[in-house]
């Protein structure tokens, strides 16, 4: 009304021509929309397709389509007559297709910058856990997709998505489901977008419910403005609204103040609105209310009824009317049929002719903005409005920021945080997160199957929380409150602690026991059981086992450069001597029985020189490996400050793990060879055969060291040292017990069996 009256007063636009308009109701139903379109085309009489019963006042353009669905429903019929349809709803890329909708012109700017603007708002207030509510249509679907992509780029997560169906505006079950979903969600911030009429279900539902005072972000204040009398919609207090920027239209507020149904009694829409807004009737006896005051003015109404400032949608309608007026103006300038058009005789002809002028029309409106109807690439800028309600049931919209899409990054988003009125119970900007921010000293630990915003907080080793980002020195650790740094205690395997004392005592005891066994063998060196299987090898084996027990003491105590060099090399060489002695003994057993055959060449190898040479050769290889290790990457004392958060572990760094495992691997190779030969010789006659004892001893030895490897890798600090010491002691004890204890039993407790006469009479003894 305002635009048409303004144009009719303008002598430079459509001079000597008066514009008029018809208003038809729009329904959110394809059948009713089609029916209204036919009524407009055919006249107020019977709706006869392809016939017009109106002789005067025939319109040549349609301004409508608040939603894409309405535009499509009307456009299907209007396109048959090539009647232009200028829409004032939000821009929809689907409607910009000139093939599908050649007669549709969209006045609104693209809202492709809206997702970026909303996400910038979320990032400013650190809202990373957000719920999304949208109508179920293609435009909202595109918006949700763009918004989610922008949220992902900025690590903002979607708490839930709820779609409102236009056809379910009266479905209380669907509304109850949404409210239940909302009440259980931990998201404090909710974004609303889409078809306003579909979102009416959020405003006008008859089901009272507390919305828990969430922060609502929307692109239109009509999505959240409360219906009069519904006090619980005070929950929308504090909402933030992205409204497309518009300039003030001169004279619009004055026009609203002067509007009165008494001046235009034929306008039934204004009369009905007036009666509803002021709660009155136009004549006495029409209803229960009082008669409307002739001095009533729209500027006294609440925001729920009427926004006195021109909204972004009203601004688009204003521009749409002017676009049509300028297109008509250009057409009349170049057409000679102006007189016939004034009489309304050929208006149907002019409808399709108007297209060429609408496509190239551009003008400056009264607010000073340049409007280009055919331009589809312009991107909207937004004012950020704060929706505030008061106890006297009044509401206001306060501008608190803006988003300028063309501005450089960092200057495009402006917000006045102090000017914002927050939702009830907030009082200040509260975070909306799936999980609270990890305090300094804690790090994010992702939850499997959850969004990146949902995580657990695990302590960071060494960090305290009294200062952001402060880390304790390597020789300190944070206390339980993560306020102070405490010095780490130095730890290593020492003799004074129970574990060190026990291991040292066991090592000394077994070494002494081995020495006693050696003494027994030396004292009874001329007996058959000692002389069997090369007594020199038995002496070497016992001596090496005694030293194996003692070399474990290098692992106990404070690591120094000397014992770091000696511990692994001594252990490697001593065990090589022991295992190679066992290998030589098993080979001696096999060769001894082969030498009894006539003409056997094995006799030359049965003497003491051959087996001892084998021991020397095997040991020499291990000595060379250790020498290369010490020359290239020797072990050295080291301090581990990371494995234990409260201790500094003093240890020997092996220098080269390859060299360390090569030494172990060589011992394992000798042990495997000994086990194989002994196993093959187990069925030889038992008189001088200790192959069964060697087989069992090597089985114990291999079992210990196979168990050692995974255990050694899974432990840290002094327990790693204790594992190796235990493996040395247990494997050495296994060799001593399995090979020599049975012989000592015979020597000391059953000497009658340790004679040649007994052995000859009892070959299976």
Features:
single chain, 765 residues, alpha/beta, Rossmann fold, 8-stranded mixed β-sheet, 3-stranded parallel β-sheet, 43% helix, rod-shaped, cell membrane, transmembrane
How is this structure best described in words?
The chain is an alpha/beta fold and 765 residues long. The protein folds into 5 domains: 171 residues, Rossmann fold (3-Layer(aba) Sandwich), CATH 3.40.50.2300; 192 residues, 3-Layer(aba) Sandwich (Rossmann fold); 41 residues, no CATH class; 46 residues, no CATH class; 263 residues, Rhopdopsin 7-helix transmembrane proteins (Up-down Bundle), CATH 1.20.1070. The chain is built from 23 helices and 22 strands. The strands form 7 sheets. An 8-stranded mixed β-sheet has the order 5-4-6-7-8-13-14-15, sandwiched between helices. Strand 11 and strand 12 form a beta hairpin. 35% of the residues are buried. About 1% of the residues have low confidence. Keywords: Cell membrane, G-protein coupled receptor, Glycoprotein, Membrane, Receptor, Signal, Transducer, Transmembrane, Transmembrane helix. One of its GO terms (molecular function) is G protein-coupled receptor activity.
Mean pLDDT across all amino acids? 80
* CATH class category of the largest domain: Mainly Alpha
Number of helices: 23
- Spatial order of the strands in the main sheet? 5-4-6-7-8-13-14-15
Which secondary-structure class do the elements indicate?
alpha/beta
If you compute it from the alpha carbons, what radius of gyration comes out, rounded to the nearest whole angstrom?
48 Å
CATH architecture of the largest domain: Up-down Bundle
Low-confidence stretches: 344-349
Keywords: Cell membrane, G-protein coupled receptor, Glycoprotein, Membrane, Receptor, Signal, Transducer, Transmembrane, Transmembrane helix
GO cellular component, one term: plasma membrane
GO molecular function: G protein-coupled receptor activity
Membrane topology: Multi-pass membrane protein
